[in-house]
Amino acid sequence: MRDVVAVVKALADENRLRALFALRLSELCLCQIIELLGLSPSTVSRHMSILKQARLVESRKDGRWIYYRQAGDNAAPLVRGALDWVSRSLKGGKETAKDVRQLKNILKTNPETLCKRQRKN
Amino acid sequence: MRDVVAVVKALADENRLRALFALRLSELCLCQIIELLGLSPSTVSRHMSILKQARLVESRKDGRWIYYRQAGDNAAPLVRGALDWVSRSLKGGKETAKDVRQLKNILKTNPETLCKRQRKN
DNA sequence: CCTATACTTCGCCAAATATCGAAATGATAC
DNA sequence: GTATCATTTCGATATTTGGCGAAGTATAGG
After folding, report:
1. How far apart are CA B22 and CA A38, in angstroms?
2. E strands within A46-93?
3. Where would I find the beta strands (DSSP E) of B30-113?
4. Could you give the CA distance from residue A100 to residue A91 in angstroms, rounded to a whole number?
5. Strand D: which bases are under 7 Å from protein Cβ?
6. Domains of chain B with bracketed CATH
7. Quick one: which of A69, B57, B108, B115 could link to B51 by a disulfide (CB 3.0–4.6 Å)?
8. CB contact under 8 A, B90 and A1
9. Chain B interface, mutation test: which of A89, A91, A100, most B Cβ atoms within 10 Å?
10. A55-99 pLDDT, tens per residue?
């Protein structure tokens, strides 16, 4: 029950759902997710930590960058089921389509440039 | 997206998950759910209203009683998927098993007696 | 080392939420 | 009608949550 509650609570936020859905397409470093959501680094970091705690995402460190990705196929059925449900439910939505478009742009820029631009603001 | 958020937020509470899972077995009137959760009538009523708003449960009125049940097979895929995930994820859990046992006892008593007993406290 | 940098943690505030008891609602039964 | 009863709505309160900026951590590169 604890795990289930952790997972649904992790999903129970629009920004976390958007981030999670974005990770379906590609792994992303934090600054890319920051760019997508338009929130402060600390807030996005916190969101990702909640998703990680619930085992919905994993991360790998590459130098100064931390790349997040959705949990893999080997994840617990609880998690696997949640991710599949989110994908099926969000796919085709209007806001989702907009995020996908923006994400494609974000992926064109390399993370370094992205972070630099963010620091200016 | 709005619908998805409504559904996950509705699921993001342990007591609502317990109520929802209990409804998998049988339709229940409010006082039976009150008995199961051990919360005040107003609180449980509010929980059920949130689940209804998200279309996860439906209700029918029978005299003074209102019976709640899980959304049927004709429900939107979004809802159907969520209910199936909850069932699969909670089935076999320890707290869940306890609830099932208690629920069986609750179903032995008729609702009228149950309500009367609750009014005493 | 020292600086810059990508990210995290902490302290704070505002908004949302869970809970209760009291009052309101709507239906039954006398 | 009046009383009773199952449920809902309202008002108040306590807790949780989402958000930010400032300070902290860890790593790359001079």
Report:
1. 40
2. 57-62, 65-70
3. 57-62, 65-70
4. 10
5. 5-11, 17-23, 26-28
6. 2-120 (1.10.10.10)
7. B57
8. yes
9. A89
10. 999 999 999 999 999 999 999 999 999 999 999 999 999 999 999
